[in-house]
Amino acid sequence: MQVNGKNYHTIWVHPDNSKIIKVIDQRKLPFEFQIVDLKSSSDTFKAIQNMTVRGAPLIGVTGAYGIYLGLVNSDENTWRKNLTQNAEYLKSARPTAVNLALLIDEMLTKLVNCISLEQACNISLHEATRMKEREIKWSEAIGEYGCELIEAISKNKNGAPVNILTHCNAGWLACIDWGTATAPVYKAFHKGIPVHVWVDETRPRNQGARLTAWELAQEGVPHTIIPDNAGGHLMQHGLVDLCIVGSDRTTSTGDVANKIGTYLKALAAFDNRVPFYAALPSSSIDFTMKDGVNEIPIEQRDSEEVSHMEGELAGGQIAKMRIINPLSPVANYGFDVTPARFVTALITERGICKANPADIQKLFPER
Ligand code: MRU
Questions:
Q1: What spacing in Å lies between the alpha carbon of 259 and ligand 1's midpoint?
Q2: CATH superfamily label, 154-363
Q3: Collapsing DSSP states into helix, strand and coil, what is residue 320?
Q4: What is the b/e burial string over 307-344, where b = at least 16 CB atoms within 10 angstroms of the residue's CB?
Q5: Atom 8 in ligand 1: residue holding the nearest Cα
Q6: What is the rounded CA–CA span in Å between residue 179 and residue 173?
Q7: Ligand 1 pocket check: which of 200, 203, 258 to mutate, most ligand atoms within 8 Å of Cβ?
Q8: Which residue intervals of the chain bear CATH 1.20.120.420?
Q9: Which residues contact ligand 1 via a Cβ below 6 A?
Q10: Range(s) within the chain of domains with CATH label 3.40.50.10470
């Protein structure tokens, strides 16, 4: 999607040096647009863990490139042993988004029959890039299916914008291009359907206020940032036509793990009969899990994400400051699980299905 009028993906291979993977540093947005180089598996691990790159589909693809970078930095005697260790190391960078483990495991299966380091490097680079392209296609397909939902609502609104509420950043920054929750919005907007997005700020890291709003502004999509607590009030007053969120892990039964606070939005939507959709590629579905609340590992992050906030001072300097008293303890759960009964439907690359085992199975019979 667009950054200052130029098209970008969130991750790409350096055009002159295939041993370097380039990514957008999402920690700096919206204040600075910076690109950083990943040259090793430890660079990759750190980038995922410190959220230079973030969002379920993007960390999956970054993990796949991390396997490649691990091989590039190995030698003929050690690469096989390093490969297995590196896979476990990269998977441990973040626990909730299943994409990371799934894509790394997929990569390992492609490398099983390799007979030399050179072959393993070539195959892993090819596979990581294939996974990247696949995510783009899947996001775009999610966009097409989700756009139909927005278009149907628009027909009853006499030209008034369709109001979509979203949480966190399930935009192109969280993926490679298009996004998951935002893909239907971009598709509808490009089709000339009037849309307006309510952007939850998404404390503590403010991915909505910092990233989703920035993306939408770059594309020219009308939007408004709201505090996380505002969604219920807006729904009670008919100001939200539908909610679309992303997912970091969806069970085979349709329970949806997403950024902390998603569940409360789903409850408010349920109470107000506002349709609540989760948009996700199959790389975010964990077919081994049935009970999201009890089985999905929920990441707990550094307390500083809650106790401090970062912003731009009047002179343009970026500063971080403490916003609470230093004596109070903090809890920082990164994700919550919305049980399937509160999810109207899932928007996937294969179509829209009800959040229940039978309908998910129909879309993905091979799984
Ligand atoms: O902690 P983050 O910023 O990686 O969390 C991201 C989200 O929760 C997204 O909504 C999620 O990955 C959906 S994917 C496009």
A1: 6
A2: Translation initiation factor eif-2b; domain 2 (3.40.50.10470)
A3: strand
A4: bebeeeeeeeeeeeeeeeeeeeeeebebbbbbbbebbb
A5: 259
A6: 7
A7: 258
A8: 2-134
A9: 54-57, 97, 168, 170, 174-175, 180, 207, 246-248, 258-259, 334
A10: 154-363
Strands 256-259 and 335-338 come out as antiparallel
User: For residue 55, how far is its CA from the centre of ligand 1 (angstroms)?
Assistant: 4
* Annotation says 248 is catalytic: yes
What is the Å distance from ligand 1's center to 335 Cα?
Answer: 9
**Mean pLDDT in order along the chain per 10 residues (367 residues):** 95 98 98 98 98 98 98 96 97 98 98 97 98 98 98 97 98 98 98 98 98 98 98 98 98 98 98 98 98 98 98 94 98 98 98 98 96
Please state the atom number of ligand 1 nearest to the C-alpha of residue 168.
10
Ligand 1 atom 6, closest CA: 55
Question: What sign does the CA torsion over 129, 216, 306, 326 have?
Answer: positive
Domain 2-134: state its class: mainly alpha
Ligand 1 centre to CA of 249 (Å) is 10
Residue 119 CA to ligand 1 center (angstroms) comes to 34
One of 43, 200, 248, 286 is an active-site residue; which one?
248
Contacting residues for 272 by C-beta, under 8 A, at least 6 apart? 232, 235, 236, 240
Q: Which atom of ligand 1 lies closest to the CA of 171? A: 15
**Residue entry with tokens 């994700």:** 335
Looking up tokens 């919550």 gives 336
One-letter amino acid of 215: E
d(CA 143, CA 164): 14
Measured between alpha carbons, how far is 49 from 62 in angstroms, rounded to an integer?
A: 11
Tokens of 203: 């404390």
User: Could you say which DSSP state residue 103 is in?
Assistant: H
What is the separation of C-alpha 211 from the centre of its chain, rounded to a whole number of angstroms? Answer: 11
